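Example complex used in Figure S2.
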Amino acid sequence: MSTNDERLLDVAGLRVGFGERTAAHEVVRGISFSLQAGECLAIVGESGSGKSVTARTLVGLAGARSHVAAERIELDGQSLLGLRDREWRALRGVRVGFVLQDALVSLDPLRRVGSEIAEPLRLHGWGDRAARREKVVELLREVGVPEPEVRARQLPHELSGGLRQRALIASAIALDPQLLIADEPTTALDVTVQAQILGLLEATKQRGRGLIVISHDLAVVARLADRVAVMNAGEIVEQGPTAQVLGDPQHAYTRALLDAVPSAHSKGTRLAPGGAAGAYVRDGAQGAEAPARIAGAPPIVRAEGLVKRYRGPDGVARTVVDDVSLEIFAGETLGVVGESGSGKTTTARLVLALADPDAGEVRLDGEPWSALRERDRRLRRRRIAVVYQDPLSSFDPRWSVGRIVEDALDAGEHASAAARRARVLELLGHVGLDEGQLDRRPLQLSGGQRQRVAIARALASRPELIVCDEPVSALDVSIQAQVLDLLADLQAELGVAYLFISHDLGVIHHVSDRVLVMKDGRVVESGSAADVFERPQSDYTRQLLAALPTLDRADERKAVAA
Amino acid sequence: MSAIDQTLARGPLLPVASTRRRRARSVRPTVALSALFAAFVALAALAPGLVTSQGPLTVHLSEGFQAPSLHHLFGTDQSGRDVYARVVYGTRESVLIGLGATAVGLGVAALLGVVAGLGGRVADGAINRLLEVLFAFPGLLLALLFVAIFGPGPGTEIVAVGLANAPGYARMIRGQVLAVKGSGYVEASRVLGHSRARTIRRTILPNAARPLVVLATLGVGQAIVWASALSFLGLGVKPPAPEWGAMLDAGRDYLQTAWWLTVFPGLAIVAFTLASTSLGRFFQQRLEGKLER
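Predicted assembly (855 residues):
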């Protein structure tokens, strides 16, 4: 490899392991990459691929029990190998900025945002107190924080997620480092906020700074990166210019990763490779038509004019759900999309009758539902099941998988232990689990397996409707693909309807027959998935879609292949 | 695609296996020592004659106030009774008081805590006010009050110490019940259409009870100290019956001339409290660990 003088960062043969030296568990296995000034390199991969460890190693934060070895790690010609803690501290913030993933956890809850941002300035002896205060306000303004003077005096919990993330970035770029490393900088954020953060990072790049972005989100990468490195199991399986890697991937893993991303073009097709292919094929690539409804059949759930208010900690009542009406018919998927705080989950809870509306009514199978007393609802509760974002917290921590599913069975229907066991196995079979998982505890299962158990439990009562509240949001993209495929298969097989809630527009487009777009507790747009996504009527929907980074190149590839 | 499958299969299996191995290895010496001591205490409580050859009430007036020696390991008291034998024979009474008082305390607390946690706003309010009143009294005063009314004796001592401890336990149990009641799995049970009684019986109570096992082991040592305090004040077991707290009380007058009369029963209390606390912690970790597997 020829040494290039313009290289800002040059990494060759990087290895990082954890644990005792004799039995070190190697997480990063000999990766090489480089970065030039004014360039953005994205490192993508799923959890456990070693991408975050790589990022942390570059700022000397790999961890106490880590072993770092490399042929070469050079920042602007200076070797970073074997630096001592003190030398790393002198480097961090000045020459390398680091933006952590979770802004809420990364900011000291008891310190004003301003003093947090001033910290690197103070540590590196920049200016006096007054000058630093001015600089902090200037930095906050630079990263697009409104009213920076006020924000600097606030505590982290008083700021929204987007503002916190911007404060972290402000802190990282305070001393204008040559290299900025951002680990999942937009993962916890709504799309419109995400778009602003991406713009901010883009501007840093334009100023001639090097940028390394760690992400699992290929769409974010497509928007920002000049080059992409795909990591899997500690190795870079493919790297090159963004257009080439995402548009014409050479490695099977990259292709699988791209195919797993749900979007407009994936509608009606399977996302995960292999499996029971063909079990689920809907008409046409666009799949816009709703499933054949029995003409004139009444909806399973009809909600009209739902209003729900909650009293906040300040004693002021906030209207969380404001005049929401919806209908869900047998065998269809109604998608509800919106940003955090838009009232999606509260709407779901009203449909589940876990909360009572302050106005309006939910009817189940044409009969009263929200108006009933809990005792009268109980018998009909089994018609609506639920799958949560975090399945683990919805399982009794004492129970095994088998017990969790068995608990959901109808006591009258399966009298004998043998019958119950057979039914539990049948349900586990539906979701692609087997007898081997029966006695395991949820904590021993992977995220995808846990969600499968949750789905098996939901199916146990033979429901007409399953409310899915962000069921795939905590999952890696390939696992997400498998779970979405599973839900589609089950719908085709059992004719169950879904109320599918997600903040992810791509997921909603992929799964939904009809879509509700919510903002501030109101429905701003509703209609068939095709109408809402291709001919959006409301400004807000258009804004959401415009803010959404897309995998255009990959989509083109699929379109060509189709 | 096989690459993806591989990452799936690898997933969380490794760390699970390694933590289990670590747990199996880690029986710390303090735990082993505590277990050994607990076994000795059990033996002393059930068959004190096996641990000492001397009687706790045998008087040898000529041998009074002897310092610890090979013949009298813990020395002798004013009447020449062997202190070691008395400590050994006092074990049954002391441990019984510790266990009994903890059982009474937890029982009362469980009743109050569960009713407060599940009984709705009125019951919760009433019980909370009651607990606040009880909290306002020092626990010892509460116990003293009870003994003053019902007269001294091991039975009243057990109930008195139990009642004095109950408010603290009740608060913890109530908090536990409320936390479990608000959990995702209780909501999941509600969505499944399970009756309230079934949810309480099969989900809320067992989960709320989980930390109690440990609380109990920690409480036993504490209760012995409390009971000792009552005996020390002359409101518990009557002399000459051997009981650790009563022995402390009896030795008080000779503190300057015969330190062994108070030090050894005191050490017995401290050692038993430490051992039960250490075993309690160990079982807590084991229990949680088992749940995590």
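The two ends of chain A are 39 Å apart (CA to CA). Chain A has two domains: 38-59+88-259, 331-561.
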